[in-house]
Amino acid sequence: MAIHIDPLEKKWIIMSAAMVLLAWLIILYFAAVKDVHPPSNVEVIDSARLHLDSGIGGGEFAEDKLGVRQDPDGTIVVTIVAARYGFYPQHVEVPVDTPVKFRMASFDVLHGVLIPFSNMNTMIVPGYIAEVTSSFTQLGDFPVICQEYCGLAHAYMYGMIKIVPKDEFKLIARAN
Amino acid sequence: MTESTLSSRDIALSEESTNTTNKLAFWNFFIAFAAFALALPMGAYQVLERSGMVPAIENAAVYYASTSTHGVLMAYVLSTFFIMGFGYHTAVHSLKQKLWSPTFAWAGFWIAAIGVVLAAIPLLTGHASVLYTFYPPEIAHPSFYIGAALLVVGSWFWCIDMVVSTVTWKRANPGKPVPLVMYGTVLNAMLWLWTSIGVASEVLFQLIPVSMGWADSLDPGLSRVLFSETLHAIVYFWLFPCYLVMYAILPKEAGGKLFSDEIARVAFVMLFIFSVPIGMHHLYMDPIVAAGWKLLHMFGTFMVAVPTLITGFTIIATLEIAGRLRGGKGLFGWLKTLDYQNPVVLASVFSLLMLTVGGWGGVINASYSLNALVHNTQWVPGHFHLIYGGTTIIMYFAAAYWLWPKITGHQLFSNKLVITQLWLWFVGMWITTIPWHYLGIIGQPRRVDTLQAYQQSEELVRSWDFSMLIMNFGALTLLVSGLLFVYILFMTSRQPMVSDSERVVSYSEAIHPPLQVPHLLNSLSFWNWAMLIYLVASYGYPVLQFWFIGTPESPAWGY
Ligand code: HEM
Ligand SMILES: [Cu+2]
Ligand SMILES: [Cu+2]
pTM of the full predicted structure? Predict the structure, then answer.
């Protein structure tokens, strides 16, 4: 049985479908061609044993491993623990215009992290490692903010990131 | 008009049946609006508290108890009870048949009401300051979860009542289309049955056992995936009755007819099927689900824009018909002749305007790639206050104004105040939500009670000041408007009685009322099967994965 559709309405429905199609295509383009994806590594870790070398995912988040390092292949990796109420280490420095890979784990409850004016945004779910790669285009100090309620002092959960010129970063790395 | 529609319209409901329904509707609305009246001042307080302008009231424990209570009352209590009251009324008056079982309906009402009390006690005393999303492993007092579970179970009684009523009617009227407003209502009931599975499983199998001490640990990843299954479609559960007011009540109130009945059914079916299996867009920023699943849910998320776009078209066309019948000429002349003194007309126009802007915000949230720029910033509460507090609630107001004389028998108190109230809500919503969205873009995180710690980034915090100041004016406007709403309903009960003819409930007609519709646009079972398949396809693996990825579970934490 056919249903009654006004010609104008039919046009509108086709236009609506076209708008949806366009949105899909734009998103697909950025995902497939520009490789823009949200943080989606499904990687588990024992949040209660972050400080130990043993256990699932053990060692990576031990106290002496936290902070900025450069992998043999040149990738800059920042390892951070989120725990009530702070990010550890509380201060990191990374070079401008360089992809930086953040690896983060929670020591206790659900947290999130947000660096304003960047795509550095992810949940940090206990039991899972969050990984985001971001490239910062502006020099200066930026706050690292917990963006998910994690307890009464949630609004005090705060860290700092300093974006430095590439050559200065190399100096710091060498000085280490 | 045909014989058959005439005769079905002539069957009068018994007075007893009407009275039972009115009472049921009244008490459901009563709880809904009492929750609203309690939660509204909390919202205004929250805006003021965190703006830091009155240091004397700053207190994190009070702030988070308040935000948790405000969120739960607005999102779960106001909505559920309003929808139940509206649904009972719709079922009886559109199907012209007595309620399937008033005892069953009252049982659901009491279960849900007791649930609200059980949840409210820990919320108000600071023993459930886990916000309305209650993400584990922070764990609240068990009474909070038990209350929440009862509220959901009580609402299932309503769902069953809607389904049984519709099936009974279909048996008695073979081959006839279910009245449009009821078809939407029953689809919404089924939508809620499907979509509440996620939160119900989370509460029953994870949160109650851990909070009672029966289990030591849980997987917060699983909780988040289950909750996401509820979190998206719940907003369509809230929004559906607003669309129904626009489709079934507005055309007549505006003095015209509905532009299209059949396309409305297509929109309802699409809302049902597309709104549930897409909740993973709430997990875009979560490391617990692989990218492919997120992309899949992104496709579905955009699909659900289609029924909303169709609704926008049909309702605007309907308004145009009414405006032209009232003498409007030219391309836009009909806009001038609409009856803006009619609460349903005015509220619908406001609602559509807020939906248009809020909808674009939603497109940004839904974007797989853009979401990172706004996720968990103030943009998000700005967005949902505009869509839910604005678009949706203003139609709840309109429905209440339309229904109150019919269910209580009293004349509506002062149409002038009613119009003022709607204007204040509309204006207040913009003043509140425009700066709220903007705060998110300039980097303010959501769910913060103070900005003390961020003072280290002085420039950033200073850039937030102006927007936070403006929001206070919006919050105040909304507070005045909301209290005015409650006052109007209260004063209505002291007004003289209306005549019986003014209490008759009748719904709008379409330009072409269908005598028959295709089977699929009148079916319930087909769409339930479709839902089952789509839901298993989109949530099956993401839920099951937790049984074999071996997450070390989390113990319960306080807050
Ligand atoms: C005077 C009017 C209102 C004001 C000033 C207000 C203000 C607020 C504020 C400041 C928050 C905290 C948001 C956050 O930090 O993330 C909040 C949360 C919330 N509001 Fe409102 N609100 C108002 C009305 C409403 C209405 C009418 C509704 C819906 C019917 C509503 C639903 C919610 C919900 C569900 C939350 C929970 C958000 C969360 O936990 O993140 N509000 N409101
Ligand atoms: Cu936090
Ligand atoms: Cu959603």
Answer: 0.94
